[in-house]
Amino acid sequence: MTTQDFTTTLLVSQTPLDVFNAINNVRGWWSENIEGGTEKLNDGYIYSYKDVHYCKIKLIEMVPGQKVVWLVLDNYFKFTGDKSEWNGTKIIFDISQKDNQTAMRFTHEGLVPQYECYEICREAWTNYINESLRSLITTGKGQPNTKEDDSFDAQLVEKWSNSIS
């Protein structure tokens, strides 16, 4: 059986723990405009990109050097008919040794071609993972969305911050 969930893989020469630590530095590769914790089990945070995309995420699984799993608790897209397409999806980072390299397999479980956002999200994740996260892992500097590129909806942040559990 084949899955339709979006998946991409990268190989780097850094250690599995280096990759794990970079993944958890979400502000270093995805967006500087994140409110909340991103590094400990059960941390919750809010990601936003302008008025286009907001999501509330909880860190539900962590195995140092092996795996990180995020659960999307709430989501909003300005550009889709169904504003909540990501709700309940999981974002999974599986890390393994492959010869003298570290493989990181990224899967957005539940992001499927039937979603209206699929193509845009596929392109965005491909860039964030294969460019920005790879750069953070290999050079120590990613290319996240900057605070200058972004602004939070203060009321939404306050509402969601109070409901992260």
Task: Set down the secondary structure blueprint.
Elements: E1 6-12, H1 16-24, H2 26-29, E2 34-36, E3 44-49, E4 53-63, E5 67-77, E6 90-98, E7 101-109, H3 118-139, H4 154-163
Antiparallel strand pairs: 1-7, 2-3, 3-4, 4-5, 5-6, 6-7
Keywords:
165 residues, alpha+beta, seven-stranded antiparallel beta sheet, 4 helices, 27% helix
Would you mind describing this structure in some detail?
- The protein has 165 residues and is α+β, with helices and mostly antiparallel strands.
- Helix content is 27%, strand content 34%.
- It is built from 4 helices and 7 strands.
- It has helices at residues 16-24, 26-29, 118-139, 154-163; strands at residues 6-12, 34-36, 44-49, 53-63, 67-77, 90-98, 101-109.
- It is globular, with a radius of gyration of 15 Å.
- The model has no long low-confidence stretch (mean pLDDT 89).
Helix and strand pattern: EHHEEEEEEHH
Low-confidence stretches: none
Helix % is: 25-40%
Mean pLDDT: 89
Separation, N- and C-terminal Cα atoms: 34 Å
Oligomeric description of these chains: single chain
Reported for the largest beta sheet, the result is: 7 strands, antiparallel
Tell me the β content: 25-35%
Number of helices: 4
* Cα-based radius of gyration, to the nearest Å: 15 Å
Q: Rough shape?
A: globular
| Secondary-structure content class | alpha+beta
Could you give the order of strands across the largest sheet?
1-7-6-5-4-3-2
Number of strands: 7
How would you summarize what this structure contains?
This protein is of the alpha+beta class and 165 residues long. It starts with 5 loop residues before the first strand and ends with a helix.
